[in-house]
Amino acid sequence: MTHKYDRLHDLVLPGDYSFANKLHNCMIACIHNMFNAKSAEESNRWEEELERCMKEFKMLRDTKEEHEASMSYRVVIKDLRVKVKGVNASLVIRRK
């Protein structure tokens, strides 16, 4: 049961797309197996695997969010005169 989830490009960095797609397929399989398990123990095992895949997928999403945040801010230093307290970096702007 494999699916190609097109919205993954919006959720993860391009280099992480292949791994994110594998994690997505893993989550689908875990949910399917969890509900079709023959025993509660088997269901619990699939639930643990689902949580592991979700945690790794969340790390990929967080990485993209951090990357986008770091790309959207830049520091413009207005005054490079060294003072007693250091460099005067008084203006921070956000690119849109």
Write the layout of secondary structure elements.
Blueprint (H helix, E strand, L loop, with lengths): L7 H4 L5 H19 L4 H33 E4 L2 E5 L2 E3 L2 E4 L2
Antiparallel strand pairs: 1-4, 2-3
Describe the model.
The protein has one domain. The chain is built from 3 helices and 4 strands; from the N terminus they run αααββββ. It has helices at residues 8-11, 17-35, 40-72; strands at 73-76, 79-83, 86-88, 91-94. A hairpin with a 2-residue loop joins β2 (79-83) and β3 (86-88). α2 packs antiparallel against α3 (40-72).
Distance between the termini: 40 Å
What is the β-strand count? Answer: 4
Number of helical elements: 3
Q: Enumerate the strands of the largest sheet in spatial order, edge to edge or round the barrel.
A: 1-4
Brief overview, please?
It is built from three helices and four strands, in the order αααββββ. The protein has 96 residues and is an alpha+beta fold. Residues 36-70 form a coiled coil.
Essential attributes:
58% helix; alpha+beta; two-stranded antiparallel ribbon; two-stranded antiparallel sheet; 4 strands
